[in-house]
Design goal:
By secondary structure, this protein is mainly α. Helix content is 58%, strand content 10%. α1 runs antiparallel to α6. It is globular, with a radius of gyration of 13 Å.
Length: 103
């Protein structure tokens, strides 16, 4: 049942933190798709992909910084543009989200 899978996803601290925002579920999908496609998505790119309940840019940027400091999102340097950081879900959150989608 979908509700049970969602509750299992919420048991993961990182996913729970991301899902605390109205746009959290969409952000999980955006970051998962970008990783699967090996996209060069930074904070601004990820923000632009949000379609529903999008916050103000500054609030989104602060939320991403918080998620990074808590270890739920990882920023890596882009291989295309050295001044750009790519956003990825942490391994723990990514694993929990993949399990949620697969079940």
């Amino acid at each position: 049942m979908l509700l049970e899978r969602y509750q299992i996803l919420l048991a993961n601290e990182g996913a729970k933190r991301i899902l605390s925002k109205p746009y959290g579920l969409e952000l999980l999908f955006v970051l998962a798709v970008c990783e699967a496609e090996n996209a060069d998505n930074g904070v601004e790119d990820s923000y632009e992909l949000l379609r529903h309940f999008a916050p103000r840019r500054a609030a989104f940027s602060n939320f991403i910084k918080t998620l990074e400091s808590e270890g739920h999102i990882v920023k890596t340097v882009s291989s295309i543009k050295a001044s750009k950081n790519i956003l990825r879900l942490s391994k723990d959150v990514g694993k929990a989200f993949k399990a949620f989608k697969a079940s």
